[in-house]
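Appendix B. Raw example, untouched.
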Amino acid sequence: MHFRLDPATEAFRAGLRAHLAETITPEFEERIYRSGVAHDDDFAKGLVDKGYFAPGWPAEFGGQDRNAWDDQVVREEMMLVDAPVYLSETTRMVASIIREVGTPQMKDRILAGALKGDITIALGFTEPECGSDVAAARTRAVRDGDDWIINGSKMFTTNGHIADYVFLLARTNSDKPKHQGLTMFLVPLDSDGVEAQPVWTLSGERTNITFYSDVRIGDEWRIGDVDAGWQVLGLSLQDEHASGWGPHLVRLLAHAEQWARATTADDGYAQLSKTDVRRRIARVAMEVEVSELLLRRCVWMAEQGQVPVAEGPMSKVFSTESLVRASQDIVELVGPDAMRSYFEPTAPEQGRFEHLLRFSLGTTIYAGTSEVQRTIIAQRGLGLPR
């Protein structure tokens, strides 16, 4: 077994890299960073035009019928350049769920627009008082004839201020156990009673807390059966948990190597000639390799028709915690200059070390904290009791 890419996928990667090199200019990168918003309509539609938006989707929906490895190459290359694709990713994720369990009416209304970049969908799972316990949702949806009335709030609704819809988890039955009284909805964010307030993260990203006050939507916006929202949500969480953040480690490694080659130590020799420098860089390189293999195992399993129930969380935990360790180690290696801010002209590597250090801390929370991932590994992978 090996995880080397075949020539066709390598060629696909080369074309994608050329497109990204052309579109992600220094000016574009700085504008996106200073906005705090990981989305750009023109960039997303450029991916659609070039066939890089959803290459693994069937051609009938606007995809290219490409395999799982081509799909993975797109994810890796987007992370490598820190492309503003988070809203595109959440849109594709929800579109995949609608394609699987949505009504024909919902599919007709959403899928074509989502795959063209004309429709965007944010996620509405976490709540201010529930943290990682998503099933403890208190946002309520009450039936009123053919409609639902929604009241509550959601935390970390990233891109909720610009998206067209939010994929919302709401409690519809308080008499059932918490996992059994939930229902999923696709809520139009231009509905009366929806409000988004900004929340700024340590990495400079804008997320939101969103409020829902007597928001009325028709039953046609429900996804899946009533009180079966946890099963629907599981489709998205499975996709999120099988994520890998190794490409960000690759970025860190590339900047560390470049700094070590270009910077002179006090004795006049390049930093790269120093044993400690080489040791730390080598450690990052080893964790890059492990992160890549863990993620590609998940892709291989998916291609074989297997579900990476525990393997996905393994990939997520290792790669994000490696990114935190490596970012801290490289900042310590470079010294106080490493803390000069992103895009500061005098900062080493334009402040990438400082930004990656801040960014790394959030990755251990995104898509479920490390504690949640370890619980999944223990219970579903190792068969340990709760």
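End of appendix B.
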